[in-house]
Input
Amino acid sequence: MTLNLLVAPDFAPENFPGWYMLATLLQHRSGTRLHLLMPADAREQAQMLADGLADLVYANPFDATAMIRDQGYRAFARPKAHSNEMVIATAAASPADHVEDLRPGCRIAVTDNRDVRLVGLRLLEPADLTEHDIQWEPASSYQAAARMTLNGQVDAGFFLASAYHALARITRERLKVLVESRLRDISHVLLAHPRVADADLAPLAQALLAVDPADTGDAQVLQALGLPAGFEPMEREDAEFMIDLMDTLLD
Output
């Protein structure tokens, strides 16, 4: 059979080929054909999901929360040792050295990633800034957010930590981290649509969880993917804990 795997469009561009390498590996080991859906942005992702095209989804934690709770998706795996931390950064020449230096009316570049925005707002609490104190400047990608920050179009940018650290070295040298989160328990999640039977999912899930960082060939795939530790099972209790944590961030 063939399963369509939709990958959230918030991974670093250099990891794009890694998904095709992983799909090839999993097809060979599980006997299940995988067709990748790679939306360019959150809007295209939402349309693909609305059209019912995805059997499996590599979802960010905000989307995963809604999909599990409201649409009956079930979590079966997540990246191992790879939580969704976020960074607030400004230009290196900025007078701001801490989040407390940001003032009401400040301009912040932000992508469509709601989980990053939620965590970022929590990190801004020491500055007594709420969502309504900020002029939000939409960025099409984390690379675009970095350009806007460096060009002085905004006072700071919100970044997924893995995307920030994957920016070109010359770009990071011109930026300054104001704060980086340490939540640990929020991550992207692999979800299965309710229509996917356990018997159809099991071979693929087993193959995914067996991808071994200690194996040279497997390690090359995981490095290309930007997930060097591989994947681990995600139980229902783990998913519920993450959902509770996301609810706390929303409050």
Summary: The mean pLDDT is 92.
